[in-house]
Design a protein that fits this description.
The chain is α/β, with parallel strands linked by helices. It contains eleven helices and 15 strands.
Length: 333
Amino acid sequence: MKAVLSKVTGGPETLVVEDIPEPTAGPGQALIAVKAVGVNFPDVLMIEDKYQAKPPRPFSPGGELSGVIEAVGEGVTNVKVGDRVLANTGSGGMVEKVALPANRLWKIPDNMPHDEAAAFILTYGTSHHALKHRGRVKAGESLLVLGAAGGVGLAAVELGKAMGMRVVAACSSQDKVDLAIKHGADEGVVYGRGPFDRDAQKQLSELFKSVAGPGGFDVIYDAVGGDYAEPALRTIAWEGRYLVIGFAAGDIPKIPLNLTLLKGCEIVGVFWGTWTAKDPKGFADSVQELLDLYAAGKIKPHVSERFPLEKGADAIAHLGSRKAMGKVVVTVP
């Protein structure tokens, strides 16, 4: 079978497509014919050995997928041959077939296309965990989303609205702001491209304050980091929650801790992958809640580009360019 493989450390240009042996379903596993694979920022980092998880090489990128079950191993009762499922894998998704633990699979609704299913669990799962469990958001609170047109950002916009929040989208272009507003944001602002000097950071903070309201933002969702973080934090409300999702800008910010004292606020780390392993019941409940929201029409992945499996490297390069909006998906014949 065909697989996209990372055999050496480097960018998307180092990825190759090769034939590897087909897997089989062992005890407790299901064999899945992969139909679509979601591409996410960890894929960009993982092939460069810049991510927290470093799978042994050769490995296939792709941390979430959807497909159809072809076989089940001994002891599997929750799924059967022919079921359409989605899964989060961490890595290993850009292949034609994969064997995964059956207890980490979820049946997808009949009306959910495979590309949307493959673009679902990681971004919505991250944002749901961030807002509900780490941010403890309440209806009527205000939410600023940095990088609001990206995969996790757009999911945060939709979920924030579904949770009854006032949502402000911050993006690098008006097209991206328009997309976020289409997906439920109440308003948006366009920020420039960093890095920023101190004067530019002050201007950015004033931009965020102009849409924050008199009390500031109750919750700030930051998947960007870099020079955007401190200006955003300066607009947080008293006892607000600043959610650290990731660092798409490339740099890990250094935050003056006196701001947390003055604002009485919290800086809260969000590491969805580790949480899913430490709290499997909470994870299962979260996925079911998200599937229910999808069925109710309150959330829907925005798949902006689709690449065939043999162009998996191009899909990762496109996402890494920070030009993508919504989700990029690799499709498998």
